[in-house]
């Protein structure tokens, strides 16, 4: 199955870095969103998106709120979600786990870590 | 008898009056020193008030400068990423060219061997031709260049990794901005209490504060390449995936 990623981050720099890292590990297809609200609208408009990579701290709708919104709908209940964030406290990670994020990356990250996490998510789904 | 009693009372009252005057004599210098102190302290309070007002007026500029720093670093980071992208594209072209060269050398070697097999009488000249073409040496150089290209690719990946510092520092700066705005709000209230002139619009400050309540930054963001936090995330997610969602929810409801 060809993967199409939705990369959600309010930082243009981080969106580019995630996109470049995806290209470096062989994934070419992705769309971008600057916050959770834009992400939700892109998700509902584009059925071909089948993987979400999201930041946590964002304006309007945060990454965690985005995850909760996605998980609250039957359509996206099993959509793979990878959180990429600066939040590395145990409570934060547990909160993401409870919100049913599939896996978690703490910034700064390498393309290798990104590949590892994507592979783990795909293997378990 | 009554007159004597009345006179005693008069003398008693006069004694009290005398005590009062003696007390007054003692207290007057104290009151004078309090008046002197107030005379000195009022200009000082005005100075403090003006200083606080001056500082409060400078805060929006400081906040704006921090915002400018964030924008400038984001632009600079974007320019560096453009260069890294351009380098990656060039490296990709070089890799393709080197692969073509390797294929070319392989084809040359095969062609040369076929030529040698078809012309067994050229023994000495064939060896000279093989030596003159230096295929092995050139191939070794191509392999060495491929290694250098790999190293440059690794370096550019490391540059990309380091550029994530921009996002992390921008969150730290946003946190500082939030603190500055909180100080500004408190100073504005203090100025209002001191002067009642209302130099700053408190409602505006309230709304700015509301904006910052949306979780747009992580005040604990750190640029830490030790990957310890990643290991913690790995452990929690590994153990979490072995635990049912109900068990995780129960853990949180405690």
Explain what you see.
The complex is a heterodimer of chains A (125) and B (254). Chain A is an alpha/beta fold and 125 residues long. Chain A has five helices and five strands; from the N terminus they run βαβαβαβαβα. Chain A has helices at residues 12-24, 36-45, 63-71, 90-98, 111-124, and strands spanning 5-8, 30-33, 51-54, 81-85, 103-106. Chain A has a five-stranded parallel sheet, with helices on both faces. In chain A, helix 2 runs parallel beside helix 3. The model of chain A has no long low-confidence stretch (mean pLDDT 94). Chain B is mainly alpha-helical and 254 residues long. Chain B has a domain at 1-46. Chain B has helices at 2-118, 123-133, 135-163, 165-195, 202-213, 228-241, 245-253. Classes of the chains: A alpha/beta (125), B mainly alpha (254).
CATH fold type of chain A: Rossmann fold
Distance between the termini of chain A: 12 Å
Oligomer: heterodimer
Total count of strands of chain A: 5
Classify the secondary structure makeup of chain A into a structural class.
alpha/beta
List the keywords:
heterodimer, A: 125 residues, alpha/beta, Rossmann fold, 5-stranded parallel beta sheet, 5 helices, 44% helix, globular, B: 254 residues, mainly alpha, 7 helices, rod-shaped
Brief overview, please?
By secondary structure, chain A is α/β, with parallel strands linked by helices.
Blueprint (SSEs and pairs):
The complex is a heterodimer of chains A (125) and B (254).
Chain A: E1 5-8, H1 12-24, E2 30-33, H2 36-45, E3 51-54, H3 63-71, E4 81-85, H4 90-98, E5 103-106, H5 111-124
Parallel strand pairs in A: 1-2, 1-3, 3-4, 4-5
Chain B: H1 2-118, H2 123-133, H3 135-163, H4 165-195, H5 202-213, H6 228-241, H7 245-253
